[in-house]
Design a protein that fits this description.
- The chain contains 10 helices and 7 strands.
- By secondary structure, it is α/β, with parallel strands linked by helices.
- It has a single domain, classed as Rossmann fold.
- The protein has a 7-stranded mixed beta sheet, with helices on both faces.
- Helix 4 packs across helix 7.
Length: about 290
């Protein structure tokens, strides 16, 4: 798209979008995204809360649906948080950078090979969105060195340059605290009257079903146990929480003593189409 035409469209969009906080939707695809489970999750979000926290923000489906006035969002994925910061603070520069991308195999390979730290802030965020929207199943996976290594996906017309979605997300993120932090550090900031939604990488339901490579360090069973200990601490401090995870026996045992509900959720990330379907997920919460 010619830069002059892009600037005209951006000017029109600036005039059309109100300054107040607006209801937005996720602008990224994310493994385990919660859009389809929102009706169930929203049943457990308090009507009034001092501050909303989400230390595994991912695609942020519940955050955007709740649209809290005060929120702290964090994640261990530095590229993800950088992208959120740029969408919050400089969305039109990100859109400008996205307009220069094309859905072609050679271009995808070149963009994937780029060192994100060598790019401008807006170009780095645009790279993240472009790869997320054009790679196989929207899967964000990194190797032990932290390098993105997912192949290109097959799409008719992937929508990575999406001004209306990104601009409304930018407005929803205004005033929101965003940090790349370990979950324990993020949870140490909570206070009585706050609400926390926890959506960690799930406990694998089988030896071949594990996926926790959002960051170079992964997320294993010891991490799951550390997270459970944090939940007991939150409960003692008067902080309400809602956690989603696999409905495995050992996760149920880990959160024994808290309220638990099993819900059915769609599973999209599988290389075999006939292996996708609906699976049991566990919601854990304190009343």
């Amino acid at each position: 798209m010619p830069v002059l035409q892009l600037r005209r469209e951006q000017s029109s969009l600036r005039a059309a979008v109100p300054e107040e906080r607006v209801r937005a939707t996720p602008f990224l695809k994310w493994v385990g995204g919660k859009t389809s489970l929102l009706p169930e999750l929203l049943k457990h979000v308090p009507g009034r809360t001092r501050r909303y926290h989400e230390p595994f923000v991912g695609g942020g489906a519940l955050f955007f649906a709740v649209a809290p006035r005060r929120a702290s969002l964090s994640d261990g994925n530095g590229e993800l948080i950088h992208c959120y910061l740029q969408i919050r603070d400089d969305v039109f520069s990100v859109l400008d950078a996205l307009a220069r991308h094309v859905y072609e195999k050679a271009h995808f390979a070149n963009v994937r090979a780029l060192d994100p730290l060598g790019l401008s802030p807006a170009a780095r965020a645009a790279r993240f969105i472009y790869l997320n929207k054009t790679c196989f199943n929207g899967l964000w996976r990194v190797n032990r060195a932290g390098r993105f290594n997912v192949p290109i996906g097959r799409y008719k017309n992937p929508r990575f340059h999406d001004p209306s979605t990104l601009i409304t997300a930018s407005h929803a993120l205004k005033g929101v605290q965003l940090d790349c932090l370990p979950f324990e550090d993020a949870l140490s900031r909570t206070a009585p009257g706050d609400f926390v939604y926890l959506d960690p990488p799930y406990d694998p339901v089988s030896p071949t079903a594990s996926f926790a490579s959002y960051t170079a360090g992964g997320f294993g069973w010891e991490d799951q146990k550390r997270l459970a200990r944090c939940c007991f601490t939150l409960n003692r401090r008067g902080v309400r929480f809602l956690l989603s995870n696999s409905a495995t026996a050992r996760v149920r045992e880990l959160y024994r003593g808290f309220e638990q509900r099993t819900v059915r959720a769609p599973r999209f990330i599988n290389s075999k189409a006939d292996s996708r379907g609906r699976v049991d997920e566990l919601l854990v919460f304190n009343a």
